[in-house]
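Budget justification note: compute hours in this period were largely spent on complex prediction jobs such as the one shown. Inputs:
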Amino acid sequence: MTSRRILVTSALPYANGPIHIGHLVEYIQTDIWVRFQRLRGADCRYFCADDTHGTAITISAKRNEVSEEEFIAKMSAEHQTDFAGFAIEFDNYGSTNSEENRELCAQFWKSLRDADLVIEKEIEQLYDPEAQQFLADRFVRGTCPKCGRTNQPGDNCECGHTYTPADLIDPVSVLSGATPELRKATHLFVALEKLHPFLEKWSQSGEHLQTEVANYLKGHFLHEELRDWDISRPGPYFGFEIPDSPGNYWYVWFDAPIGYIASTWEWCKRNGESLDKWWKDPETEVHHFIGKDITYFHTLFWPGMLQTAGFTLPTKVHIHGFLTVGGEKMSKSKGTFVKAAKYLEHLDPAYLRYYYATKLGPRLDDLDLNVAEFAEKIDSDLVGKVVNIASRCAKFVQTTGLSAAYPDDDGRFEYAAQAGEEIAAAYEACDYNRAMRLILELADRANPFIEANKPWELRKDPANAQALQDVCTVGINLFRQIIIYLSPVLPKLATEVGALLNDPITSWDQSQTPLAGTQINKFEHLMKRVDTKRVQAMIDESKEETADADAANPADEIAAKFNDSADVLAAEPLAEECTIDDFMKVDLRVARVLHAEEVTDARKLLKLTLSLGGDERRQVFAGIKAAYKPEDLIGRLVVMVANLKPRQMKFGLSEGMVAAAGEGGAEVFVLTADEGAKPGHRVH
RNA sequence: GGGCCAGUAGCUCAGUCGGUUAGAGCAGGGGACUCAUAAUCCCUUGGUCGCGGGUUCGAGUCCUGCCUGGCCUACCA
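Corresponding output:
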């Protein structure tokens, strides 16, 4: 049997922020799997890249006052440093903004066109007139039309109500703060329904997806006609322009997965490999590791695209759940949103690799990081049990080396060798927590052997020299076996043990044959216990960092952009709470300014004639002379208190008030109603 | 509202096709040891298998109703 050829990917991290411990669940999970496959002799290659396109990148680049290209280059370097810090090793780490990717996108696109899957439709979308671009839902915020909560995102509200951005009251563009307007634009769509039979067959075959995922697809999408997939965005958009549709760009989710192939291609070019061998040869297995949030891109669109363009379909899409910390979602304010770099300042990456391994199973369940359990598992499993075996044996054979022939060990080595297949099956199935349990069981069998044979007593009598060497030879070999099994999870430890024993760990099969007659190098501590003070420090520092630079959600981005002072509210604190009835007593109406003139004898007043529609007119004196010229007001819509008791002033009768805000003097700003409001409309 | 998954010892979880007295690790208790990083080893306490029905000679396991939690999703299955 020839060895398996396997191509593995992790989801492409978005180039909009740093890697954190939540991301690492996936990259550690994948890296373990890749290392396992290589250990088993497979030709296994691991590809990833930064996902670099989309409006969010443009916003971030602007905020940092650099070009998009500069911004993504910096992020990519940071990401790669973070991954390397956790011993996550890619064969190639690319970028979706590469020429390879552009070329492949064009190739996929042509295939879709040739298959007659691309259609054009005109859709209405909110447009930011200031930034001169269309806005995705999450780049619009406003007041929920149902419950009235302010500053809600463009698609749904905290109250649970869902709507389209056009339904929002007082929508605001996150990009510029301008009021978006509805505009029509032509978008390109993939008519996915034509691939329905194929997707049904592929997703429900039971071979490629976890059963929960197959059920999800069936229940949510495949039970009815598949909707056309909007695949283009009008410019400006940081991405690739569609060759046969100038002014339109491929949506980031079109070019992102193609980035898997582009990254492979870069590696092929560098190593004289053929891309077809890796992406068009049915002998090559393709495995994607992703989080459950991006399930449908990878299980509907992506197989559809691959099928149409003639590339290899995923052998398996491995989907994992999210990380929680202490049973709760990661939280910036609680300091549990720990960046990879921050973790590395304080703790050994091996800890996290092992801990995740003990928690990861083949299903999509979320996994929880519990700080107490984290320390406990490392200390008791790795330090107390595993490393301890070497620690208590190595120095006795430092000078003599291992026994020339492997001694009798009551079948312990053989038992552990046999266990190898079961452990391997668990790794293969991504059931790492099972693999870890099985391996630890072996450690629990090794320590009693040493205990029973008392090397510390044997060494007291030179006559027992051979017995002492034999006991330690067994101990060291049982230890080595365990380390071989753990090496996908703990590569650095495996390297160190290989050096200690003068026998680098390169193959799973090494677990089947004991070492004998070889020299041992000087033993040094292989792993430290977890310093819980450092864990706490890491969490505390994560708290501090996010306290002053929290710009993760669009609301905060806007807040940072405008940087509104708190002084204004402080200068005039909120009035006593009132009821809706109290409020309704004040009848605010939209009115149009028909006429305005300066009151010559008054320092502050303008005399306004307001219309409430039809013949309904009011004369109002407003204290805005320093701020507005009469001619600038005429024709405008304002908001007035229409049922205010008329008041006789020195210059005439005032029949209401114009609503305005500001410090006073020239700093006064009249409230206006947006276009569409009509004189006479009540303000609710 | 709908869907999926889970609920087993104080904690984290195993438990195969329905089959003896439901297991492990950690924590707790007792003891031993001193090679080892306050490590290790032996013994031990601890369970109404979420709750109620049903199928069966036999149910942690299968069916059903309910409760709780998590996730997904939305007037649609």
